[in-house]
Predict the 3D structure of the following.
Amino acid sequence: MPKPSASKATGKTCRFISGVVEGFYGRPWTMEQRTELFQREKKWGLNTYLYAPKDDYKHRMYWRDLYSPEEAEKLVALITAAKKNGVDFIYAISPGLDITFSNPKEVATLKRKLDQVSGFGCSSFSLLFDDIETEMCPADKQAFSSFAHAQVAVTNEVFTHLGQPDTFLFCPTDYCAAFCTPNVSQSAYLHTVGENLLPGIDVLWTGPKVVSHHITVESIVEVSSVLKRAPVIWDNIHANDYDPQRIFMGPYKDRPTDLIPKLRGVLTNPNCEYHPNFVAIHTLATWCRSEGGRGGGQRDVEMTGGGDDEAGSDPCYSPKRALTLALTDWLQEFLSTDQPGGPRPLNPTHLKKESSDEEPMQTDVGDPVYVPGSGDNPLFTAEPLTLDDLQLLSELFYLPYEHGSTARTMLTELDWLKAHREAVGDAETEMTAEWRSRAKCFDVMCVAVFTMFNRLSNAPNRSILYDLYNYICDIKSGVTLARAYVKQLGGQSRPSAQVMTDDPEPWGFRGGLSGEFQRMLPCHGNRDLFRHPPMTSVYSIRPFCPEDKTEIQKIHMEMQRGEAKAPAAALPALISDGLAGGQLSPSPNCGLVLEDERGVCGYALGLTDATAAALNNQRTLPGDFPSLVTMQLHPRVTDPAPARRMIGSLLSLMKTSGSRGVFCELRQGDRRMFDFYSKLGSFTTLKMAGLPQDVVAMGTSL
Ligand code: GDL
């Protein structure tokens, strides 16, 4: 643990604040869970719990209301339990939704509430002003020169009223760099806080962002100099209250241990579900302990990151090893029964019984035990959960900015299998063999997820399982769909009803209305090629015929208009404009047209020998790419699949016509096609002499 240090501002000896803030939106934890948390904190060497559940009535929305005798009794018990475990219980209140800072009655009400909690045995407090409206009411505007002045005045007054507690935390409204205008060092708000907040009050800070990917020493030095004190990090790295599909069970990470001497403390605001926070809190504790070995000659060799496979590793802390330590301890929790009536361990003699007409065995509670006979179904059994299962669970639900390694591999492999699906069905080439072998590995990974799911479902500790259930069920469905799709690509099964149907069951498309909204927004997940609401159209691809020229021209013109903020004439000319514009005809058998119920909605055209066309446009072709392709889709085609099928078919046709490499030209404004070719995987950017500015060439060998 970090050594206690003397505060420059107050001369008080301060221990490094470490622990948990229950500061998320949604259902607060139960008193039993909190009490268990204190025991864990004690065991793991953490020393603080900040009580700040956003949706606890009397913490925020009804902050003025005093606790009833029943509530008081529970809080007293909680505060006592914290003390018993050496955990500092900090009571936080969030009056910012509607307090009038300049009204003395309001300040008196706040003091009365905190006095009540003080009477419960609590001696550490916190005022939170996060996530509130920054516009002051007219009365406050009259009384204070800024919002920061209003908050600081009330906070100082309450702090003094409570007798300047040893621990008193203030959460600013601009609690991360992203909220500061224009930036941290020039933020008038933070400067006011730094200069006017009494020195005994510590300030909470979430880092560069609300959910910070990295927190660097430099960023902390910068904010500390403005705040005139080292902040306490309120870390949202494991918070999941903003997305019901995510939960984080990766290790505490991307905060160098060099930060520890620069900070007043770290409190993690983790997942809303209590049990899955085992990893978040255990690894934070390991991180906090890591500093203990510094300079003292007793560095914890087990925990040092050196020689680890983690890039830029910390000499004092290895997230990977911290994770293994946490999961090893967590496994024991999973295996301990938490509810009466759980499965009884099977008596091995029962399993040996051959015939069902023997007398049923009696257990110690007298229930008959069913023993299947020789022709009966064997009993369902799931093997006990293993450390590998928990490792996989953590990797599938890792961190907000990072999937775990198995998750990354599965995504990469699925992407590759999709991009190279033309390999299947060819004569047995090397590529086909590679495709099949990678598909097999993908399948093994999918099966490991299902096995983990079964073993988790059978784990004796039901409370942990229930907290995880929705998430593991969700990932199981996602993996089931992906697996079925790969099998179908490999010709091992007919197109799966769930993957391909135009009328999927509710569980075949996920995410509800919110998911649909998101998929329709332009910034939706940068991995996505096109926005694709549920498929409603049936597409067909057929060979191009000269009668299609007019429709193709229309699409070509329309796309040019969309691409150009300026009139079409201002766009740099592409060699393929001639093909799409009808001046050039595609080579025989090298044109395809996409149709939906409204008619032609896309085209893919190729010239096997583009030398002459290139010369006309003052380009010099790169030697290995003599052929030109161009593809365009009407904006109403929101599903990426037909586009991929069409370009795949065109490339096959061109190869059959003798081409060994194709290229395409794209204007930089045509992001959609640029993304499309980039994500196919096989196309790369080419150097080509004579390309106009703002035009890129991409190509692939055939
Ligand atoms: C926030 C909220 C917090 C919430 C978190 C993650 C702070 C200081 N406040 O902004 O209550 O749980 O985001 O959604 O972080």
